[in-house]
């Protein structure tokens, strides 16, 4: 028989539907099915069938049971004194199948098998055919039971949505959740999942509309605001429309687990066993290069992730990279703090303050921190959390003896058994079992080094006609044991076009490579390069931590450098390096054109084989800059180190808009100091002056005001000497801003007036508007509102001519502030509302917060206390979301 409970009630015998009687009889059957193979009492059935039971419900129930027996036969049993029992065999009830699939999904999720979890949850939900209450006359008990059943289904929907989001199946999630939120408009978790799905699929406007819809339902039907999760998610999505916002769930950073991981069971148990609850658990995996430290750490981290679900952070510390200095702990902390939601402008300057804020952000949170390739204790110590709710995994080639409380796991090369097991897993157990002795010899020839065994196994797997003994012959012919011999075997077996790309990767700047940057390096199309990269990944010559980005193991990077040096003549190496640097310069310039359309920069010509990436909009450009940041910084250094000074300073110039937007001050200062040295070494005075301007801005941002003034004065001397009036103008303006910050208004005003004069002389409307705004700001701060208003209005006139909505919004807000100073509150409100509308249109959250605060002050001046309060509540919430201290000032107004 087949019992169908998850939708319209039904029973089938050999596929034929059975007659089940009227609504109350069907209610009895539903109750019995919900408690299949258990006795259900008369009292329970009475509460399940009637709100107000008849005088003698037992008689009615006997009638219903008799009607059911005519269809179900001896499946329906009477238990004297206990009620009635329905016998259901395994596999007959759709509810049992649903529960089993849900359990399978939970198990897969616990094991981090997201694909299997999604399949199981989707299968469970597919069992449902509708709403099981529509045709029943249900009493209070059955209504409660059916509500619980619906709750189980909705929980499965939420579980499926979670895993499907991780897999990027946005369309399916969105369609499903739109139906569910329509049916269950007060279930906030469904709305949260829908908002996430819409936002991650690039439909942020619809995500915000979803919040508006759920808020309307909750306020109208319950009389309260939505819960904390929905409100916070709404603010994050709002903030993500602004350039300074962090990505959603950016604090879950573990790299992909390794499918072919084999062995190391004892070490895994040691790493995953619970530690003391009174202190941070610190585990250090130590061993030689290529022994599999990172793979073991990543596998352990994924096993521990369920125990530490709040935060998972990962950083490669480059402790032993021959081409890169070990990572600065301060820079790593900056990255971690951004991922934890601290805006760039709120990240302290000193290492000690950053470490303190980092420990504060992780206090009480179940956090896992994976630090790969540590150079030593001094590099690691500032990156350790302070809360006993956290755990840290570290990999290093050195012994980390002086870390307090560290648990060391020494990782040696594979045992013969582990090496043979990995060989069997990759190349096939049948082939290895056919000649275990030869397999052991392969392990020996690989020096039992995991990376070498994996490469040899992949070589065997790709050649089904070979036996293991054939592989032994190939390795022995190559001569020498260990990784080098296996690298030679794998590399020499590649076709020449694959060998060429592999060795050229030794010239690529930074941590990883994409198809587009590899294409520039090798003079290929992105399609050709992507195909070759995937082939090298299949051959285990590359690694992949995130889709679309490829990296070289340290040993293989050194081997690639060796091969490219030995094989490619110096002119060919120089050409490849120029091409990839040109690609970074040109693509960065395409990004700048989206981030700041007013920027002008002469970036020269590049190799015709270079095809820079273009961007559809500002968000796409910003995402690329965020993703490529480490490579971009490395490219500036690489250009300077290889006698390509123009590329070094040009790329640094391209990047400063991005660094300013994200407040990456360390990178800004580093790249500009490199670019400045390159310009001086090349004797390019104009480039030196430009570098001094943008370096001065960075110095001002980090409050090194005297150094900023010195930088601008040096730039002015250069531009006067070479007669560059166009560059002299922004230098005066920036010098004025520093004087303004230093509380030297007269000096600032003189600088701004000089800048404005040069801008008018050159007919540069954009620059004239900038300086007029600054002059007006000085007058307004001194209480000279009429003089300020005159200059603001002229600047606004210019802005409207050159179509710069962001600057226009700033001016409108400033004009509103001046009208407040003149006590013309209606005019103030009118201008500020226009500013607020523009800030919302362009997604500038900080601008919205500022103008809302200003609008509140203007409304308060009009006597509209309710309106002022509403503005300040929203302003304070936005400032708090951005981590801006001004939130406290606005709260004080409230």
Automatic annotation (TrEMBL):
MF-aspect GO terms: ADP binding; DNA binding
Pfam families: BTAD, TPR_12, TPR_7, Trans_reg_C
DNA-binding region(s) in UniProt: 1-88
Gene3D superfamilies: Tetratricopeptide repeat domain, Winged helix-like DNA-binding domain superfamily/Winged helix DNA-binding domain
Domain of life: Bacteria
SUPFAM superfamilies: C-terminal effector domain of the bipartite response regulators, P-loop containing nucleoside triphosphate hydrolases, TPR-like
UniProt keyword DNA-binding, yes or no: yes
GO biological process: phosphorelay signal transduction system; regulation of DNA-templated transcription
Transmembrane segments: none
Per-repeat ranges for TPR: 729-762, 769-802
Domain OmpR/PhoB-type: 1-88
Keyword field: DNA-binding, TPR repeat, Transcription, Transcription regulation
Family per record: Belongs to the AfsR/DnrI/RedD regulatory family.
Annotated protein name in UniProt: DNA-binding transcriptional activator of the SARP family
Lineage: Bacteria, Bacillati, Actinomycetota, Actinomycetes, Pseudonocardiales
